[in-house]
Amino acid sequence: MAEKPIILLIRREMRLHDHPALFEAARSGAPVIPLLIRDDDLEGLGAAPKWRLGQAIEAFSARLAAQGARLILRSGAPEAVLRALIAEAGAGAVYWTRRYHLAGREADAALKAALRADGVGAESFAGSLLHEPWQIATQEGGPYRVFTPFWKALRGIGVAPPLPAPQELRAPIHWPDSENLADWAMGAAMNRGAAVVARHARVGEETALAQLAEFCDGPIEGYATGRDFPARLATSGLSEPLSVGEISPRQIWHAGLRARDEGRPDAEDFLRELAWRDFAWHLLYHFPQMEHANWRPGWEGFPWRGDSPVVERWRRGQTGEPFVDAAMREMFVTGRMHNRARMIAASYLTKHLLTDWRVGQAWFAECLTDWDRASNAMGWQWVAGCGPDAAPYFRIFNPVTQAKKFDPEGAYLRAWIAEGQRHPPDTALAFFEAAPRSWGLSPGAPPPRPLVDLAEGRTRALAAYETLRRAG
Ligand code: FAD
Q1: Where is the Photolyase/cryptochrome alpha/beta domain (predicted)?
Q2: Which of 139, 208, 237, 270 could form a disulfide with 241 if both were Cys (CB 3.0 to 4.6 A apart)?
């Protein structure tokens, strides 16, 4: 049995099940020291994802403690922190789960080389996707750029079953010291919003597994049509636990397959949506520029507008377009936004307000508790029209007709817009509790006036697109 401990570096894998790096570390028979580092990456997170990560760390620490293990917390540059801990604990290897964005890949490659040069084992494992981004390739061996053939290829090769949780985690003779999570103040940037968002968070691996089971037992049937209606509880809500790795996509995939085999055909639509997440990471892996640059060439010339007081009203849910404002407020209160609402809010910003998609992308990265680097970038570029497999630019969502179609009884708008209601529900009022006082908002104020006439905004957007098309 190996005696030298293995350090298990945790970044976004807050689970015992289907965690290949953990599984292999445990299987080796060596003592395992789980470690999470507060590095620049973690410090650079937006307010809401950072708060949510803090919740996940707390829950995972408790879960490890129940197994007789500990999650060691340390701050600093990963290489220096690891070198110090390796020396302290006499560790023989470091295991981690692969990352797929360029900066993460480069940092991990350098870390692997440095550790190996020191004579320490360094192994990286899959764990956060259905497939590694290079495992799905076109006939020519290249990456996919369009979703449907990617989906067909993924569906064709299937998905490996999830791994079980390790039966036992061997403890080291001495547990190294750990910093205190409370001292990291992971919720500091949320201010008073944290208490409001906390009411909506479902945290921890066991909770995520229960949420998956509930969804597959019920709402998954009806998903195909229900998923477009923001007031219905028709989607899984699993993006948040997925973003911090409280659940793995393979677990979700196989639960969906079982639901389909048990006679719930809408499960197939659900699997297809889940594959969009892998597609986003496939794209970001092969085209790292997707995160910051227009994916389609030629869009550099588009007359995007930058940040402005008008954009600030969008951020604050004060555009005067009820569907857009409801969407922005839902995000501020719950940390999440329904997919249809994300499309409407993003379309309004990039088309009716002609704003650069990166401005919206950054605000979502600040406010979403399910923030996912790849899905957010792909989603914004897709809606803006400059992205992979994007909707054509001239397809401009009208928030009023969208509300009529997907919120016919006005339930979503009533849930989130207090102004004008005699007895607004708690959800709508909570926005005023969460919003910074400096915004000076009150539920009793008259509804905000529209920032732009929808027809004029549409005409202006189409004219801007026309100049781009002509220039191309
Ligand atoms: P379900 O409908 O239950 O779907 C199951 C899972 O499939 C989701 O949890 C998610 O992992 C995946 N999925 C579904 N739709 C998409 C999609 N369009 N793209 C990628 N994956 C998808 N999703 C994030 O997880 N994080 C983000 O930061 C994010 N930003 C977005 C920004 C914009 C502008 C847009 C248009 C979409 C964005 N999405 C993002 C995608 C999508 O809105 C969410 O994944 C979805 O609303 C999550 O709700 P759910 O878990 O109930 O989804």
Answers
A1: 4-130
A2: 208
